[in-house]
Specification:
Chain A: This is Fe-S cluster assembly ATP-binding protein. The complex is a heterodimer of chains A (257) and B (370). With 257 residues, chain A is of the alpha/beta class. Chain A is globular and about 55 Å long. Chain B has six helices and 17 strands. The longest helix of chain B has 18 residues. The chains are: A alpha/beta (257), B alpha/beta (370). At the A-B interface, α2, β7 and α3 of A face α4 and α5 of B. The structure holds adenosine-5'-triphosphate and magnesium ion (MG). Magnesium ion binds next to α1 of chain A.
């Protein structure tokens, strides 16, 4: 079953075109990797999917689970099952992880007519999830991401993903900043939480090493605002060996090589 | 974000009431027009007062338009006495019969709660809190109703006496003006926290003189919306060595409201080893709102530590989107971030039930404003 359909997506920031006719389909049960040079528009794609203000869609469409995603407010997209793992998770002084996540989960549950979790129920869930990702439960009490190391922030993103248990995750360079052990733990976490027949993942990454743990079904190259090449897992290995320059004339022009 | 539109308002009325002129520097942000308008408010029905008393032991004073409602009050250790007028421009209007809490050496009183209900027009009430050496007290005051409520409170703390004072302005309309004058003996401690979370205009006017090794906190949060204007103008003076003071104020302004924070710390020539901190921060919920900040340091001693910071900003849009992307609707995300912004000011309240009540008032304000 097709979960996400992006057709001819054009988006701009401050009047500057960034996505220039991007098309992509992701089926339930699949994990797709998106690779591509710096500045190609990978994070922009994530933000457009999440509905970040200032990212204006000028053409094309995004359909998620049969509904027009662009019609939904960011929080409604979350409630519909979308999760955006940030390349740079945001620090929120004065708001604890626990408060933030409980508010988030209960808001999502509320919009699905599920009853809210009590403080105790939530804490139990959060502690379990933190433990599975080898994050110190004490960090749940700290303000969101404040003073967390780069790797701790990424791990915290995965704890959040485990707690809200989304249908579809866009993970933007979740592997960057992770040490070797953390990479394995996070990779296992993605598989555990998301590798299910009714779920799907868009994994944005620069390196093969995360893909060693989380085997992609499809690999796409995003360059200059478009998907310029798609293939199986072997495409990532080829890119790792030969770089983006070797992909052929179309990509070379797009990459500016 | 300019003030000019309001500056000319009703120029003749302050003279009529004999109010300070906004031409004077210390009064330049004062909303005397709103004060006069409040004084002229037609009578309104008396607001419910019961809900404003917290579930605490001790004295409960209910003042309706500045007059004690004996039926609904429990005086405990509080007495009514005659007060002479001070010389403060607004405070001097509050004279005559008012309340007094006097504690002897080493005494510790149950919390004193004062609820002020205004029902239109103007009302004035003087008060004093006098603690002898080592005495300990907690005073919580709440303003509700509408009208011009004017207060003058004199605080005198003996050696090592401690006073926790929390004041919340919840009037639905009109104006509240407070004049606080405190004098701290050696090693005495005064923690005053103010919350402006109603729809009335306000001016909190304070002067604290800190003695040797004394500790003073004067701070709080002013939340303004609509066309409301609230301000504080407080001055902490370190007269003796080794004192410590913190002035931590937060202002949140929505719509076309104006919040102004003026805080001064003054360190006398021989008040060495003074540690003074000032933190004034404003948050604009809309760009049409205004926050004025005026931190002032006047330091005449050479061996002192004084830190001050003053910033005005808006909610972090990245944090807002991050929260929305996790499923939190935008108004709720704004409320959470705004609450976090004022939290450190309200967290200075040591008593948990009082702190929680003030936090709930701030939450209620946010629910209305966002
Ligand atoms: N606020 C902005 N204003 C103008 N240009 C922007 C803005 N934000 C991003 N861009 C530009 O959009 C382009 C795409 O950025 P994006 O962050 O999507 O790249 P990316 O593929 O994620 O790169 P990386 O691999 O380095 O993370 C870049 O050229 C970037 O400079
Ligand atoms: Mg990126």
């Amino acid at each position: 079953m097709t979960m996400l359909v992006i057709e001819n997506l054009h988006a701009e920031i401050d009047g500057k075109p960034i996505l220039k006719g991007l098309s992509l389909e992701v089926n339930a049960g699949e994990i797709h990797a998106i690779m591509g040079p710096n500045g190609a528009g990978k994070s922009t794609l994530g933000y457009v999917l999440g509905g970040r203000p200032g990212y204006e869609v000028t053409d094309g469409s995004i359909t998620f689970d049969g509904q027009d995603l662009l019609e939904l407010e960011p929080h409604e997209r979350a409630a519909a099952g979308l999760f955006l793992g940030f390349q740079y998770p945001v620090e929120i002084p004065g708001v604890s992880n626990v408060q933030f996540l409980r508010e988030a989960l209960n808001a999502q549950r509320g919009s699905r007519d599920e009853k809210p979790l009590s403080g105790g129920e939530f804490l139990k869930l959060a502690r379990e999830e933190a433990k599975k990702l080898d994050m110190d439960a004490e960090m749940l009490k700290r303000p969101v991401n404040v003073g967390f190391s780069g790797g701790e922030k990424k791990r915290n993103e995965m704890v959040q993903m485990g707690i809200v248990d989304p249908k579809f995750a866009i993970l933007d360079e979740t592997d960057s900043g992770l040490d070797i052990d953390a990479l394995r733990i996070v990779g296992d976490g993605i598989n555990r939480i998301m590798r299910k027949p009714d779920k799907a993942v868009l994994l944005i990454t620069h390196y093969q090493r995360l893909l060693d743990y989380v085997q992609p079904d499809r690999v796409h190259v995003l360059a200059d605002g478009r998907i310029v090449r798609s293939g199986g897992p072997e495409l990532a290995l080829e890119l790792e060996r030969e770089g983006y320059g070797a992909l052929g004339a179309g990509v070379e022009a797009a990459v500016g090589a | 974000m300019a003030l000019s539109a309001q500056a000319w308002r009703r120029p003749s009325v302050p003279e009529l009431l004999d109010l300070p002129s906004t031409r004077a520097e210390a009064w330049r942000w004062a909303d005397m027009g709103a004060l006069s308008a409040a004084a002229a408010l037609a009578p309104i029905a008396r607001a419910e007062h019961e809900e404003h008393f917290l579930d605490l032991p001790g004295a409960r004073l209910l003042f309706v338009n500045g007059v004690l409602d004996e039926v609904h009050s429990v005086l405990d250790r509080v007495t009514l006495i005659e007060h002479v007028a001070g010389d403060h421009a607004l405070g001097r209007h509050a004279q005559g019969t008012g309340w007094s809490l006097r504690l002897d050496t080493d005494a510790a009183a149950d919390p004193v709660q004062v609820v002020h209900v205004a029902t239109g027009g103007e009302n004035h009430l003087p008060a004093e809190i006098v603690l002898a050496d080592d005495a300990v007290a907690t005073v919580v005051e709440t303003f509700v109703g509408a009208g011009w409520s004017n207060r003058a409170t004199r605080i005198a703390l003996g050696r090592s006496a401690r006073l926790q004072r929390s004041v919340r302005l919840l009037q639905a309309g009109g104006f509240v003006s407070l004049r606080e004058e405190a004098e701290l003996g050696s090693g005495a401690s005064l923690v005053s926290v103010f919350l402006g979370a109603g729809q009335a205009g306000s001016r909190i006017d304070g002067q604290v003189v800190v003695g040797e090794g004394g500790y003073a906190e004067m701070g709080g949060a002013l939340l303004t919306a609509g066309q409301q204007r609230q301000e504080c103008a407080v001055r902490v003076r370190h007269a003796e060595p080794n004192g410590q003071s913190h002035q931590l104020w937060r202002a949140v302004a929505a719509d076309t409201s104006v919040a102004s924070l003026a805080a001064a710390v003054e360190v006398a020539r021989h008040a060495q080893k003074t540690d003074g901190e000032q933190s004034l921060r404003g948050l604009l919920l809309q760009r049409t709102a205004t926050v004025n900040l005026k931190p002032e340091l006047e330091i005449f001693a050479d061996d002192v530590k004084c830190a001050h910071g003053a910033t005005v900003g808006e909610l972090d849009t990245r944090a807002l989107f991050y929260m929305q992307s996790r499923g939190i609707p935008k108004p709720r995300a704004q409320a959470i971030l705004t609450r976090a912004f004022v939290a450190d000011a309200l967290d200075r309240i040591a008593s948990e039930p009082v702190r929680e009540a003030f936090a709930a008032d701030a939450d209620a304000w946010l629910d209305g404003a966002l």
